[in-house]
């Protein structure tokens, strides 16, 4: 029982990272129906900005908590700007093109970020600084919980609630919902579609960047290709929960994390990625709208 | 009809001429090993591009798992020559047939999906195939298979390249091929006209997988060594770029795309980072400024004046 609880805790902490990335996927897909392959690489850029700024702030001698907050905010801002630039340059000219051309462009952007990263940063993995010293807690005897895991879940939950508030309570959120429902009708109603789409990219990329910093802190490493696998997994999570649905992405991420740690803990860690893709395919074939797809028609 | 036959004969004659010229150059020792391997690589990429184009370009089913089928062909044909001492042509066929069967198994359930969902499902399948190789001790796991006899030569590659082009071209111009094109143009309308869409999608998928398997076998027997990571989805994207650059729905486009990209790739071999950056920029710029690719859906024909009327001409023949 304790073993299962332990795995559950580990799974949830891995899953929250997927959930954070999946939120961005879901938002972008909801609004322009694009699988943004570059999303995983924005996650990587976010991690890199976090790495550089954490080192910078640490040298300045700030308190670890502030170092963490500053670097996560900085990486979110930089990635949001990057996301908007990518949208403006690469995706906007293709707004009316076929879905395949825009998908291929997304693949191209993803390649560009990866190889640009290799070119400027170098292909080898780097250590990620431990921003907040890890503390171990023991619950009910042998169950371990560290401060990092609490922090991951806390940040993810906070950002998701914030996102829900933005989407449901603000004017830009209302515009997003309108554009995702019907882009042309929204345009006729006087909504600035381009601004709305840019805002979506900005928010989605900021969330990916936050996930990147957290991921770096959890695994203590950074490399330019680190975004590929978490990016694909997060997409699986988004599809699992029903792509376009914010709580769906969150639940999908957690679910995927738990499945993954379960597969690893019973000794098949090499099959972990295979299982994730198998789940993706099963979901696509039997319930393409995802676990939460049918009931909620609202998309963001 | 006459014109079509003439076109065909001229095409065969020109390709035989190209074959003979290169064969003579190779046997006289004029071409260096570097150029021979580049030419073979181009031909393998032509097989891959033309076969993927049948799925993505002509049938309109967006598949990005081609490297997975390629790996099935590569591994099975390598096992056949290594462990079962099968002659090379037979080993290639075994690899191709295994890839076809995988194409069938994967195609039947997943071709019910459309567009992006199909793309992501095929990507998932490609990765699953890779992970299976990665975890199979019999084929060497992560370190892969080595010591595969180097049996691929210009003649074999040329023969298979010609077979691929002929089969795909004739298929596309047949009744079945027309059905595939109609699915690309509008799946719902095609279905309403009584076309069994799933059947044709699966057929196109199987033919494409067969040639991907053959290409995999050829490349395995060229590089002596294969490992699961050389068939990841980056490889699938490379093949996709060939097809997109040439033009989705144009066999001659895929051939040109394969030649151009393989040349860029080999010439920039010493600068791998820049190579990939150029590659990705090319992809983005191509999509923004010329989303139809170099050839669009046109075919290169030997009556240059009549170019662009290809489809109308052939249906009347």
From TrEMBL, chain A:
Family matches, as InterPro entries: ABC_BtuC-like, ABC_transp_permease, BCAA_transport_permease
Membrane topology of the entry: Multi-pass membrane protein
Recorded GO MF terms: L-isoleucine transmembrane transporter activity; L-leucine transmembrane transporter activity; L-phenylalanine transmembrane transporter activity; L-valine transmembrane transporter activity
Spans through the membrane: 12-35, 65-86, 98-121, 150-167, 188-215, 235-258, 270-286
S-adenosyl-L-methionine among keywords: no
Example GO biological process: L-alanine transport
Keyword annotations from UniProtKB, A to Z: Amino-acid transport, Cell inner membrane, Cell membrane, Membrane, Transmembrane, Transmembrane helix, Transport
Compartment(s): Cell membrane
GO cellular component: plasma membrane
Source domain of life: Bacteria
CDD domains tied to this protein: TM_PBP1_LivH_like
Family per record: Belongs to the binding-protein-dependent transport system permease family. LivHM subfamily.
Classification via PANTHER family: BRANCHED-CHAIN AMINO ACID TRANSPORT SYSTEM PERMEASE PROTEIN LIVH, HIGH-AFFINITY BRANCHED-CHAIN AMINO ACID TRANSPORT SYSTEM PERMEASE PROTEIN LIVH
The protein, known as: Amino acid/amide ABC transporter membrane protein 1 (HAAT family)
Organism: Tepidibacillus fermentans
UniProtKB/TrEMBL annotation, chain B:
Residue ranges the record marks as coiled coil: none
Membrane topology of this protein: Multi-pass membrane protein
Keywords: Cell membrane, Membrane, Transmembrane, Transmembrane helix
Protein name per the record: Amino acid/amide ABC transporter membrane protein 2 (HAAT family)
InterPro entries the UniProt entry points to: ABC_transp_permease (IPR001851), LivM-like (IPR043428)
Pfam families documented for this protein: BPD_transp_2
Keyword Disulfide bond found: no
Stretches that traverse the bilayer: 7-28, 34-55, 62-82, 88-108, 115-134, 154-172, 202-227, 239-265, 277-295
One of the record's GO molecular function terms: branched-chain amino acid transmembrane transporter activity
CDD domains found in the cross-reference section: TM_PBP1_LivM_like (cd06581)
Keyword Transmembrane: yes
Localization annotation: Cell membrane
GO cellular component, one term: plasma membrane
Species for this entry: Tepidibacillus fermentans
